[in-house]
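User: Fold this one for me? It's Bile acid:sodium symporter family protein.
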Amino acid sequence: MPSASTVPASPAPDSTDRAARRAVTVFPVLVLAAGALGLAIPGSFAGWGTSVPYLLGVVMFCMGLTMTPKDFQGVARRPWAVGLGLVAHYVIMPGLGWLIAHALDLPPQLAAGVILVGCAPSGTASNVVTYLARGDVALSVSVATVSTVLAPLVTPALTLLLAGEYLPVDAGSMVGDILKTVLLPVLAGLAVRLLAGRYADRVLGALPWLSAATIAVIVAVVVAGSASAIKSAALLVFVAVVLHNGLGLALGYGAGQLARLGPPASRAMAFEVGMQNSGLAASLATAHFSPLAALPAAVFSVWHNVSGALVAAWMAHRARRTETARPGA
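Assistant: Here's what I get for Bile acid:sodium symporter family protein.
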């Protein structure tokens, strides 16, 4: 999905808004279709599991290609708000994953998968959804950028702490995998943007669709790998994912409100907390646990984009009503 630099920080022409809405609408449909394909013909994806980290690297390279130095400058301008967003993200979602795994008494593989989703950095679609919600895009960009950069250190440590009771966690190996599949591709994309920005700008419009198609392939591979177990676990996983995402959105918004960041920043906080890089979670779960453990990430990949689009539409409607009712508006 589009990352920070592909959407403006302030209301834009209708064409840009329509393009963003189209991407958010089509993406979950594409991912849902890919999951159905993986479930219907799992044999067609046999042996594809080893390609998932490389596919994720493509997505993260696209993310890096859309970034500019301004994305990092925003951190220095608003360290308090960005710091709050990071703490909220890496406390609320991992904690919710652990609580939901216990509350639903999930089997070890699924419990580890849910927790791993919670320990992942912000989702790559959070920026565009924040834009559609009339939220603070600059804050969303900063939190997503820093959470991704910190992921090699934070995600393995949190996974070991919270999921270690369910399955063995090789945190050291996980650090290496995140560096290779997330941080290095992002830095490579950023380097290409800095060195060949004029040429990179020409392909920016295609990047969201390339990312969406690649994530769809990842979902198809993950679903195919656990197709035999989905029928018995699908409902339980869906309940866990809906609770995880819904509570994350609500608590993220509440954190912004408690900190008195204002409505636009609170809307950004909701999506930066509640939307996860589920592609990374699926890749790590497949590599370090099992295809079944990657199932929550595959379901989350579809659901958080559906819920994000719906919540963004509701927030934008409320924001417009407030602006219209304001004296002098």
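One thing worth pointing out: The domain at 4-320 is CATH 1.20.1530.20 (Na+/H+ antiporter like fold).
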